[in-house]
Amino acid sequence: MKINEVMGKTRLTRKAIYYYEKEGLLHPQTETSNHYRHYTDEDVNKLLSIRLLRQLDIPVDEIKKVLYGQALTKTVLEEQLSRVSASLERLQRIKENISSLLNGHPNRSPCFIELAGLAKSYSDDLESEMKQRSGYMARKLFELFPGTFGRVMALHFGVFLNEPIMGDSMEQAWAEIVEYLDGLEEIDLPKTLVQQMDLLSDQEIEQLVELYHEQLRKFVSPDERQYEQLKDEFRNITAAFAAVPFAKEQIWITKEIKIRLDKNRFYEVFVHNISILSADYRSYQETLHRLQHDFNVSYIDNGLLIL
């Protein structure tokens, strides 16, 4: 069936359907001659399920795991119920604090000293509740990572950090990341790379990283068809890189960055804990290592740094 019929059956917009396709939740057949999409009843059922789960405020990444068989629907619903319950508890505490302030001073407005008395406990409650929301870690990285290079790193790793912080192991991993970044100085980068980055505006960096994120998502839980496409892309990249005149310089820059990151225990502390916090990041790393194994080559020898 054509997309207009699918829109009618699912009550989703064309843009929403295309978005779910882009995110890898749907794979309709496409005619090679005119690129028209053809949808099946199974596609419609998937979209109806996606629509329901999104209405329950379940993140797209979690829905993708359900569709790919990496998580049980029951587990995802239970985790969402836990997050909703935590939010309701926080709202109840807010209600009680407001009532306490109003009832304690029925004839006047509370003064700043009285408000300050509630400030710390309220801030702690808010931070605790925010940790249980999707996207908390990605947003927080922007505050924690120092310097321009740090901002690019935060944008890179942020795509993998949409999961809420749930459980002692994730709490510990996040605490170690915060402590590590709090003591991290600006990483000393090769002069050539700094000059290249300084030429880019904030908007240009964000646009480049958004395109980069689209590429990164391809490495998360690819099926065999998608993995074969990644192999073709990798083969083309390595062939093209060998022909460029600045290949040796790029390899040198990449290896210099790797040395500086190792000196700052970046992989030992930061990347290790990112792996604990994100199933998507673990899948991404597995795909990268599988490609290197299948081609018997190293990313760094092709001017590419694994992060």
From TrEMBL:
Keyword Zinc found: no
Under Gene Ontology molecular function, one entry of this record is: DNA binding
Q: Which Pfam families match?
A: MerR_1 (PF13411)
Superkingdom of source? Bacteria
Domain HTH merR-type positions: 1-69
- Keyword field: DNA-binding, Repressor, Transcription, Transcription regulation
- Matches recorded under InterPro entries: DNA-bd_dom_put_sf (IPR009061), MerR-type_HTH_dom (IPR000551), MerR_fam (IPR047057)
Q: What is the lineage of its organism?
A: Bacteria, Bacillati, Bacillota, Bacilli, Bacillales
UniProt protein name = HTH merR-type domain-containing protein
Keyword check for DNA-binding: yes
Family matches, as PANTHER family? MERR-FAMILY TRANSCRIPTIONAL REGULATOR, REDOX-CYCLING DRUG-SENSING TRANSCRIPTIONAL ACTIVATOR SOXR
Name the source organism. Answer: Paenibacillus beijingensis
Q: Sorted alphabetically, which PROSITE patterns does this protein's record hold?
A: HTH_MERR_2
